[in-house]
Amino acid sequence: MDRPLPRLVVAALRGGSGKTTITLGLIQALKNRGLSVKPFKKGPDYIDPFWHGEAAGTPCHNLDPFMLGREQALASFGHFSQGFEAALVEGNRGLFDGMDATGSQSTAELAKWLKAPVVLVVDCSMASRTVAAVVLGCQRFDPGLNLAGVVLNPVANARQEGVIRRAIEDTTGIPVLGAVPRLKLSMPERHMGLLPPQEHRQVADSLRLAAEGVATHVDVEALWGLMRSAPPWPETPPPQGLFPPGPPTGGRPLIGVVRDAAFGFYYPENLDALQNHGARLVFCSALEDAGLPPGLGALYIGGGFPETHAKLLADNLAFRQAIQRAANQGLPIYAECGGLMYLGRNLRVEGRAYPMAGVFPLDFAMQKRPQGHGYTLCRVVGANPFLPVGTEFKAHEFHYSQAQALEGAEYSFAYQVVRGQGLLGTGEGLRLNNVLGTYHHVHALGLPQWAPGLVRAASAGVEVS
Fold first, then answer.
1. Cα of 118 vs its chain's centroid, Å
2. What would the DSSP string read from start to end of 232-248?
3. Are 38 and 86 in contact (CB under 8 A)?
4. Residue 68, H or E segment
5. Which fold has domain 7-228?
6. Which of 102, 124, 274, 393 is the least crowded, having the fewest Cβ atoms under 10 Å away?
7. 392-399 and 401-405 strand pairing
8. 329 φ/ψ angles, rounded to the nearest 5 degrees
């Protein structure tokens, strides 16, 4: 049966317009009204969802039209919003920005898939009536989009707000639901966006200030009315890849997950899928632990910021040696981006080399510009413990590090990059024994073979010839 699901998509004209702050404030403000809110983030992102989860008190899930596709995105939204009184989706980049000139896989397309009203956060710095022309253009650009409200951010004073508000409402008929001044929040950024909350000492204060700013300057009651105007949500089956077709058979292998301030980039769907397919998860820290948990069948090292924790990682010799011993003994290890960098010999940051786990005969050096950024397509071309040869999958990459081959070293790759940057040339998925390291992040709902493959490897003690 259909169920009520008040929902809203928060969009902007470009990245950096303040929609994350507005979204966090709305989540907190709705929670303050006693509502349970499920957060979602459009596109590939780890850091903004961390903050959304902190504000909502429940994990934020990604809705990525490219990696998941329409049906999987809708199934994920329906599944993870069950039991909540509202759903809030933060878009990414500009409202109509997508993979091509038609705006495929844009925030606007996702909003239409979800049949959700859109509130547009407009940066009105050093502008007034021109803002109305921009909003009018968005309104007419896609008449099929339910552009239902505007929030101005930031406004300098009451006069600027009044001029913009009247111009927008008189020209477009779209209500201005808020005008937020420049908020003084303690939410510092670095090269990949906001500082993750696990490295932020004032998370609660930042969220409180965002909520107070939004509640004071945005008409939360009107926004809640917009959310309630969304049509009922039809019941759908859960997304493919999240659950096995039947109950897991055999034992429940133990998979270690390295999760700490250096390695925190894990889609919650990936961890859920591993457990649903029969794995038990145990978490450990490359910064603090002296070794790996006992009894592991496999190890998962996600992305993160090893470069900002390079000294601490290097100083923890015992953990580095434990990783190297496990790799030499044949433990299946799957490592993405930051995890790949950690498995190299050295990580060079600002001219200084820090020793890492030394599994791969490869060095990494941080650069000033991104070395890989965007959506990718890969094809599995070599034997590995996790994915069958011939598998094609979509992923994404975002890294400032560059791999540096060592003279005389030989490398074996499991992937060929069809779109995106390879690790060395077009080779990707560096493989050694039962270890696979890649710059390419996968989403379990976009690659349904991934979770069962990792669980099988953990169960079987895979040996690759």
1. 21
2. PBPP-PPPBTTB-SS--
3. yes
4. helix 65-68
5. Rossmann fold (3.40.50)
6. 102
7. unpaired
8. -85, 0
- The answer to whether the 7-228 and 254-460 domains have the same CATH topology is yes
Q: pLDDT at residue 271 above 60? A: yes
* 282/280 Cα distance (integer angstroms): 7
C-alpha span between 25 and 30 (Å, rounded)? 8
- The pTM of the full predicted model, rounded to 2 decimals, is 0.93
CA distance 241 to 310: 34
For the question of residue 124 being annotated catalytic, the response is no
Nearest Cα to 435, choosing from 357, 365, 377, 373?
357
Helix (H) or strand (E) holding 76: helix 70-80
Q: Where are the alpha helices (DSSP H) in 373-446?
A: none
Residue from 60, 124, 284, 337 carrying the catalytic annotation: 337
Where do the structural domains in the chain lie, given as residue ranges? 7-228, 254-460
- Enter the CATH code of domain 254-460: 3.40.50.880
Q: How high is the pLDDT of residue 204?
A: 67
> Which residues, at least 6 apart from 90, have a Cβ–Cβ distance to it below 8 Å?
9, 10, 19, 20, 23, 39, 40, 41, 42, 48, 52
Q: Give per-residue pLDDT as tens, 407-458.
A: 999 999 999 999 999 899 889 999 999 999 999 999 999 999 999 999 999 9
